[in-house]
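cron nightly-structures :: item 1 of 1
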Amino acid sequence: MRVLLAGGGSAGHIEPALALADALRRADPGAEVTCLGTERGLETRLIPLRGYPLELIPAVPLARSMTPGQIALPVRMAGAVNAAAKVIDKTRCEVLVGFGGYVSTPAYLAAKRRKVAIVVHEANPKPGLANRVGARLTTHVFTGHPDTQLRNGKYLGIPIRREIAELDRLAVGDKARAHFGLRTDLPVLLVTGGSQGARSLNAAVFGAAGSLRAAGIQVLHIIGPRNAADAPTTHGAVPYIATTYIDRMDLAYAAADFALCRAGAMTCAELTAVGLPAAYVPLPIGNGEQRLNALPIVQHGGGMLVLDEELTPDWLRDKLLPVLVNIDQVADMSAAAHSLGRGDADRWLAQAVIDVVRENRAKGPDRAKGPRHRLD
């Protein structure tokens, strides 16, 4: 089975693609999985680290409105489509799976030209332009959000890493806390604004650090690489652990009782999968999709929602702190969050891809029919 995955630019496109790649390898150890990206995205770092081959094509950003810079778009797009077609020829892929972003539009068009099967996965409530194009070229369309409106779309969830999907927070909680230097007898608030940190989250938590520690709330704070000098001291009876980066987010989730975070699609998918309630602070820029990501979780009682401009030390003291010290309320919110988790989306999407390959092989009398791999 030969599969080409198109997902680049941001971690929100790359991580689901890598989770699918891992699921395909588990289902068929002989599967040849290649990733397609551009030089502009995080894929040049993340994908090689996970051990998958990466092919690069030119990035062609698609603006929502016509600008002078878009005059050359047809020529640039044609070049990117040709480059993607060469990768398809080189890998002899049987199916292209696209996750959106700059790389997916030329990949979809090249796959259509080469008569290669297309599978689309859209993680966000508001589909991007690339996946709206892709959804018109195939009936194999899957969404990560139940309210996503996309042609032929079927709700599946977002593929996440197995170490997250299979995490038993209660079983490894004490070990995880010891890993970070946290106490096992006090609640833990995990604060993360993503790999680069989030200035507004950092400022609010720094300002409320004294109140949190006075109430017996430990803090595990991923502050980002540029903010180390501003972090509070970690000394004292109630630990405040500030770190620029954590590469074991499974242990961070296991150590925590509650999270304060942005509301990216991957973050929401991972937190619900492990049953970690959160106060979600949607990114104040963009098209508002982060609020839509968090809204179903909040409506079902699995989290709180606070606007970025309303997130202050006072809000943390007056609104969040009373929740953190209420053990029964946190337990109820954890159960509500977990009820929305879709920890098997990687397996379901892998099975869909396998079925597409099997069906296409069956249609071609001159092509070898591969075995059908069923995931249990």
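cron nightly-structures :: done
The chain has 14 helices and 13 strands.
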